[in-house]
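Sample entry (422 residues):
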Amino acid sequence: MKNLFYVRHTCRLCHSDKQELVVPMAGMPIGTPNFQVPDASVDDPVFRAAVPMALHLCRDCGHLQILHVGNPEVQYRNYVYTTSLSLGLRQHFEGYASDVVSRFGIAPGSLVVELGSNDGSLLGFFKERGMRVLGVDPAVDIARRATEAGIETIGDFFTDALGHRILKSHGAASVVIANNMIANVDNLDPLVIGVRDVLAPDGLFVFETQYGVDVTEKNLLDTVYHEHLSYFNIKPLTRFFARLGMEVIDVQHIWTKGGSIRVTVQRAGGAKKPSAEVARFIAEEDRLGVDQPAYYAPYVKRIAAIRDELVAMADAAHARGQSVAGYGVSVGTTTLLPQFGLESKIDFLVDDDPKKGNVMAGPGYDIPILPPAALYERKPAFVVVFAWRYVDPIRAKHAGYFADGGKFVVPLPGISMVDRAD
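Predicted structure, serialized as tokens:
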């Protein structure tokens, strides 16, 4: 496949070329279970090429980012992951909509535009509250189905040009929302300029994204992959928005993705006074020193220690003639296999979703995907739970495996063992 990825050499927030490698990581494929690649065989480079994925720190503004950028046409035009399938996310979205409407007094009839709107789940809750809604998402099939379900959705990438077209066709937006999508965008300037221009004078841009501090402090390694190009902290964000004529006025710490932030932005000089939370977040980031390369050394050591322990456990099991399994087939699995050196150590994977296929293919590996019943038939020495955030509902299903002496190994945020269903 041509144009699988490209390399940028400047910070996507401040455009400085002073980028320093701070977290070396094993390369991983651009292709993940999140999207389909039409007409691509299992041996296409999109699945087989180990594309570099190291994290770099901007020495001018402190932004943490991946510089090897996957082709967005490949990644997002045929996206298959839908937000409505994630455990607890619809309830989160309902609270999200209620919070935005009540905190900022959004009147019925106001226009709410969502970038990366996926299946329209979040916009549906704004629509229930009397808002006019419009989604924008480049996944053409998901956008079509959302429109058919009653959430008008434009099947395209959002840019300043599209923002201007929306302004002419729908009027100014009271709220623009982006839920876990701005970290996926390489060229952020046109997106934010489009948001700024489509907003009403008193309009707000509200977005949720993974918090960079949580990624490092909580060992959220499975959230690091090529779709997530940026790991945002508040201090660099405030400078970025100021450069484009906007102002960060509030930050909330939320539970999603293991640790995220909900950031509210207005046009510079807008009516709303910035909350004390903005300064508090920045002060904590300064205390931790997240804009300094030395801060990331312990994170690198923690990853290496987990990798060494998991590899040693797998080697010991194989030496005894036992197999090793993994639970969960997702983009997080695609990340953790190479970061923990498990590509040749996992004998098979299991997943509750029969649509995950028969094989997980990657650079140098083809791991069989089996139904969970294989745990009882093959009796692996232990199971690495790649879907570690869901270990409690998963363990509750497998009392029989534990009764036979089986163990779950939870790799993050640090290695722990589970040998019972409750």
